[in-house]
Amino acid sequence: MPTDDQLKEIVKQKYSEIALQDKETNLSSCCGAGGCSTEVYNIMSDDYTELNGYNADADLGLGCGLPTQFAKIKKGDTVIDLGSGAGNDCFIARAEAGETGKVIGIDFTEAMLNKARTNAEKRGLNNVEFRLGDIEKMPVTADIADVIVSNCVLNLVPNKDGVFKEIYRVLKPGGHFSISDVVLVGRLPEGLRKDAEMYAGCVSGAIQKEVYMELIQANGFTNITLQKEKAIIIPDDILINYLSASELQEFKTGCTGIFSITVYAEKPKGCCAPGCC
Description:
Elements: H1 4-18, H2 23-27, H3 67-70, E1 78-82, H4 88-97, E2 102-107, H5 110-123, E3 128-132, E4 145-151, H6 160-170, E5 171-185, H7 190-194, H8 196-200, E6 207-208, H9 209-218, E7 222-231, H10 236-239, H11 245-253, E8 257-266
Parallel strand pairs: 1-2, 1-4, 2-3, 4-5, 5-6
Antiparallel strand pairs: 5-8, 7-8
């Protein structure tokens, strides 16, 4: 298995390519990783088109949920989007936060940031900002965000515990997050788990659902709520690239499941660090 730094570089290169692809190509792929399936048109992403603030130019079809729909954003809120891509969730968050709010998108892919900034300029949005940075070390000060959202991004990060620690640092006391992500129930076959390309495709980077929820609790968050859950079916003509025929059959008839979840949690009021209360 590649190192954490190698995995990050694979993801950065892949998503730089994706930034230059059209939505149709991304939707017909595994989390945008390339045109790898003819069986289905849309594997993971939900329909954003009815949400206020939707911008077709910013929708690359890369998400696995609608976190902004569940994020309880209020007028005047400061919202941070982790792995903001071309800016779709940021623009929807801005529609909720209004002119008195502020939205900051963080992404470590220059091509995505360029696309997002162009989209913001076209819409004349002066309270939406995009910053280059690693979400394990966010380029923002502590206790700044009322709300944090993220859509199908943490599964791409090797150090998920580090990201949740950063989320805790950056949220104001009493602030909250709503995150859509990919998780597992049961053990992935070795071919999927070890393949770096499938890491960039969102699957092998996913961790067990139980572990994911425990990480949130261990980092001091409260009122943890599973807002939405749906099964993700990976088509055979993707899986056959990574599994033998017998492994494929076992995978499809076994107990392993791949799910998209949207999770809500709060940073306690008056708390400075996990365990201080």
